[in-house]
Write a structure and sequence with these properties.
The chain is mainly alpha-helical. The protein has one domain (18-71, 96-151). Helices cover 59% and strands 0% of the residues. The protein is globular, with a radius of gyration of 16 Å.
Length: 152
């Protein structure tokens, strides 16, 4: 076994990293449309857990993930919303200060728990992963939201 991932805590087979597993999943998604059905969930899940977004980007992507999971949004709906909001956007999705506290979240689901064996298993696992990320990050988001409201 490899040591736990310092960002998400995932424990993968010896020699495999989260990045390796994520890259493999993305290749499979691109090669097999049945796997690609959850691409709009797999990418934000991985990038949220590995704090790859800017502070604002992290919060916005998590909000979008919640819309996918809880409100049944489709990628098409998200694209329309993003396009509509693009005119006033003055921040970078990835560049800039990272959201503090992400590294302290005890993630209960990670990419290590995603089965690549079949599209059915993969899609179900990614959907569970997305829902769990929302649960696991709720306290951080509430704390940040409260702090931002106080600062206003």
């Amino acid at each position: 076994m490899s040591p736990p991932c310092p960002q998400c805590g995932a424990v993968l087979p010896s020699g495999e990293s989260c990045q390796d597993r994520f890259n493999l999943s993305q290749v499979i998604e691109l090669e097999q449309p049945a796997y690609y059905a959850v691409h709009h969930l797999s990418v934000p899940c991985y990038l949220l857990q590995h704090n790859a977004y800017s502070h604002r980007g992290w919060l916005e992507v998590r909000k979008l993930l919640a819309m996918f999971v809880h409100e049944g949004w489709t990628p098409q709906m998200a694209r329309r919303q993003i396009k509509a909001n693009a005119a006033g956007k003055n921040w970078s999705l990835t560049r800039g200060e990272k959201l503090p506290g992400v590294e302290d979240i005890a993630w209960t689901a990670t990419i290590a728990g995603i089965s690549l064996d079949s599209a059915e298993a993969y899609c179900a696992d990614v959907r569970r992963w997305a829902a769990q990320i929302l649960v696991d990050s709720e306290q951080l988001v509430q704390t940040v939201t409260d702090q931002e409201e106080i600062a206003r």
